[in-house]
Amino acid sequence: MKRTADGISASLPIHSDLDLVWVRQHVRQAAAQLGFGLVEQTKLVTAASELARNTLVHGGGGLLECAPVSRGGARGLRLTFGDEGPGITDLDQALRDGYTSGEGLGMGLGGARRLVHEFAIDSRPGTGTTVTVTSWMPGAPRPREER
Amino acid sequence: MSGAFPAPYGGPPPYAGDVPVLRLGDVLLVSLQGDLHDGTAERLQQDISATVAHSGATGVIIDLSGVEIVDSFLGRVLGDIAAQTSLLAAGTVVAGMRPAVAITLVELGLTLPGLRTALSTEDALRLLDGSAPSLPRRGPARREGP
Ligand SMILES: Nc1ncnc2c1ncn2[C@@H]1O[C@H](COP(=O)(O)OP(=O)(O)O)[C@@H](O)[C@H]1O
Ligand SMILES: [Mg+2]
Is B103 helix (H, G, I), strand (E, B) or coil? Predict the structure, then answer.
């Protein structure tokens, strides 16, 4: 695993259910460090847990890239889950609540999308899947942070 | 990946042991703490079913006050526990879910059929029925002599 000094940017491998625990811990810590409130932290960690488990279970393992982002003075956290698994042939079906190709509840993908502000999937059958989510700190940046 | 896996943040290691299942009269009390491995959650499900089956417990309380997130995996395990215990004529009550967790569960879209919820384990005991044991309020249940 690679981490930088800001305590937010990191590349985390996802190859076991222990790795899912590290993913949750890191996302919690990164969100707290950025100043996300408890409810927003909980939403992000829950979304990350769903997406990381998909990377592990459906994608055959992969990587989470975690990075701080900013846009027009707003700050946020971006999580990118990548795998080189079988990919998703029917995205609409995969996002539908209750659809599972395995033994899950089929709530992970659609649920994660509801828990974050921005959600994108890039998936090619036979090549792999990348899911990128971003959440932003609520409210305008504090005046003294404006330059 | 190497077999040795040092804790990257110096925090407490993730909870990997068995979750204790306590008996309070006819009721089993299970306190979940911290971040559960998927394997631990699945083992818990087996332990509870086995314990209900051989103890004849009439209720199970799962205390979630120490749990920081419930995702669809843990949600499914909790639902499965409720379904299994109801086959064994026992009810399951989930107690003490944190507000942030409850809010997130709704947005995630998880409904947990068969699971009753209570604010605290005491409320859960009351919910489970009149046959629930009365807990000693403080210290051992011994009568103070005058
Ligand atoms: N990374 C992935 N690679 C391949 N398929 C995926 C991936 N993520 C999700 N899917 C597909 O989308 C479906 C729905 O995912 P999800 O909503 O998380 O439900 P569940 O994981 O419970 O099956 C999965 O059953 C699987 O078929
Ligand atoms: Mg899933």
Answer: helix
